[in-house]
Amino acid sequence: MSDTTAHEEPELIQLLTPEGELTGHPDYPLDISAEEVRALYRDLVLVRRVDSEAVSLQRQGELGLWASLLGQEAAQIGSGRALRDNDMAFPSYREHGVAWCRGIAPKELLGMFRGVTNGGWDPHALGFHLYTIVIGSQALHATGYAMGVQRDGAVGGENGTAVISYFGDGATSQGDTNEAFNFAAVNNAPVVFFCQNNQWAISEPLERQARVPIYRRAAGFGFPGLRVDGNDVLACLAVTRAALDNAREGNGPTLIEAFTYRMGAHTTNDDPTRYREAAELDEWKAKDPILRVRRYLEKNGLADEEFFASVDAEADKLGEQVRTECRSLPDPEPLDIFHEVYAEPNTHIDQQRAEFADYLSSFEGVGAEGGR
Amino acid sequence: MGTNLTIGKAINAGLRAAMEHDPKVLVMGEDVGKLGGVFRVTDGLYKDFGADRVIDTPLAESGIVGTAIGMALRGYRPVVEIQFDGFFFPATNQTFTQLAKMRRRSAGKLSVPVVMRIPYGGGIGAVEHHSESPEAYFLHTAGLRVVTVANPEDAYWMIQQAIRSEDPVVFLEPKRRYYEKAEVDTEAPIAEATPMGVARVARPGTDVTLLAYGPMVKTALQAAEADTDHSIEVIDLRSLSPVDYTTVFESVRKTGRLVVTHEATLTGGPGAEIAARVTEECFYHLESPVIRVAAFDTPYPQSRLEEHYLPDLDRVLDGVDRAFAY
Q1: Is pLDDT of B274 > 50?
Q2: What share of chain B is helix, strand, coil (3-state, %, to 5)?
Q3: Which residue of B has its CA nearest to A340?
Q4: Do the interacting molecules here have an ipTM over 0.95?
Q5: Domains identified in chain B and CATH numbers
Q6: Active-site residue B130, yes or no?
C-alpha cells in the first residue's frame, strides 16, 4: 500500500507568499508590471464584493441560492486573466471570478440564481460556457470542444486556441471527469483541467474524495499535473498561462490543482459549522488571497492609500449597482416555459403552449378575489 | 434508378452522403473506424474520410456523448454510435442533463446537433444487455427528438435528415432488421423525402388501426396479411418524439379501433402515452379500448425465451381479436 495520502502536501508552486514577498519560481518566470498587479488586486476586490453582495441578496430573499467563491478569488482571477479572447472556458457553477474576467456582467450570474434565466449570456461571444451544475459534466464538453479546435486546425503555434475546464475536488470522483482526462490524453487535446481543490465537497473533506493528491492523477492518464498555491494570484496566472500556451502549441492537456480553501459555505443553503472546525478557517484566513497582494503592493511602494481607497470606493459603487440590477431583473413571462426546447417546430410543445395560453387568458378580467 | 440496399447498408450510404454534403459531419464511437462498427454500419467511412472524421473513441459511452456535445458546441455535427442499446445507460447523464437541455438552458444561443445512433431491440439470440428497447426513457426527456426506421428507404433518408436537424436526435436502428432489403432511389433530392416527423400509412385498411414502429412494422404487416377477417390499417410511426398525431387520429377516427405494438415493456411504454392521447382526442370514435401488445414488465429474458417475450405475429393477431371483442 502506498504511504501517500491526499493530505500529504508536496511543495506548492508559489510566487507570492502570504506575507507579500515576491519569491518568483524558476519554472514559471512572470514578467509583470506594477500596473498589472494593481489591476489583479482590483479584480480580486471587486469579485469578492460581487460575491458578498450576492450572499446578502440571497439572505434578503432576492436570490434563491448563491454559491460563494469566498477564498477562491486568486485561483479564478489568476487563471481567468491567463485566458486569451479566442480561448474557451467551461465553468462549474462557482466561477464568478472567471466570469468577471470573461466580461460576464454580474447581473447575468444573479439572473441564474434568482431564477429568471438558466444562464443568460452568449457563450460563443464571450468564450465562457454556461454554468454546469451536474458535477464534472463540463470536463467532457471542454475536451470535445478542444477536439473540435484540433479539427479546425486552430492548434499549433502561439496563435492557437486553448480550452480550459473548471471543476472542484469533488468532481475528481466523477466518472465524467476521469473520462475527460482519458479522452483528452488519447487525443492530445488542447485543454487545461483547472481543479480548484477547496478541500471540501459540501461536507466531505478531501480524504473522502481522493487517496492521492489530485494533481498526481494526471500521471496515470499520461499528461503533466501540477499543484499550485491557489491563493496566489500570480502563481495561478503564471502556471495557467504556461499550461494554456502548451495546449495551444499542440502539446496536449495539463491538470492544474489549485490548492485553495472554501472560506464560506458550499452554498447559502449550507451550514459548515456542522462539519468543520473554526480553527481550520482561521488557518486559511492567514493565507487570504487578497491580503497578500495588498501587502506586496504596500511593501514595495507600488500603490498608495489613494489607490486602495479608490478600489474600495469602486467596490461600494459596484455593490450598489449589483443590488439595484438584481432587484430590477424582470420575471420571465409564463409562456417562456415553452421557448427554445427545440430548434424545430414540435407539435407536442405547440399544443401544450396553446392550451396553457388559453388557460391563462381565461383569467383575464377576473378580479384578484375571484376564481375562474 | 434504385439501388438494392439492406437497412444497414442504407444507413451507411446515408452517412456517406451526409459526410460528403457537409464537412462538419463526424462519426464517432467504439470500433467505428477500421472495423466499421460491430454491425458494419460505418464500413468504409474511415478509409474514405480519415481518422479525423471517423473517430475510434475510448470505450466510455458517457465520454463519447459528452465529447460529442463539446464538438457540437464548436460547430461540428457528430454522429455518435452507441454499440448496443444496453450500453447507452452509462451515457444517461450526458444525454438527459446536458444534450437534451442545452438549447433551453442557453435560451436558444446554443445548438447541439448530435445524432445518437443506437442499434436496439431483440430477436438476435444475444446475451444480456444486447436486446433492449429503451425508447420510453428518451420520450420522457424534453429536448430530444426520437426516430426509428423500418425499411431501407427511411434508413437512407432519415439518417441524413437527423444529421441536418438542429435538435439532438436519438436514431434507433432495429438490429434484427438490419438485413432487410429494398430498392432505394439514392439519387432523388433529399427535399422530396418524407419529413422525419411524419408517420406513414404502411398498409391501408378500414376495420382497425395497427400502430407499430421499427422492428415491429414488419410483424404488423404480416399480421395485416394473415388476418383475413379484418381489414387492418398499419401505421409505421417513424417518429416517436414528436408523434405525428394527425395521421394517427385520422386513421383511428376512420377505423374506430387501435392496437399499438412495441418491443418496449408495457408499463409507461410509448403505447401508454398514445392510448391516452387517442382516448382524449378520438373518444367518440372509439369502438373499443386501445389495446397494447408489448413486452412484459420484466427484464429482457435469456435469449432462449425471447420468442415468448417479444410480441410476435400471433400475439399481435390476438391483440387485434381483443379489439373486436367489444
Answers
A1: yes
A2: 40, 20, 40
A3: B104
A4: yes
A5: 3-192 (3.40.50.970), 200-323 (3.40.50.920)
A6: yes
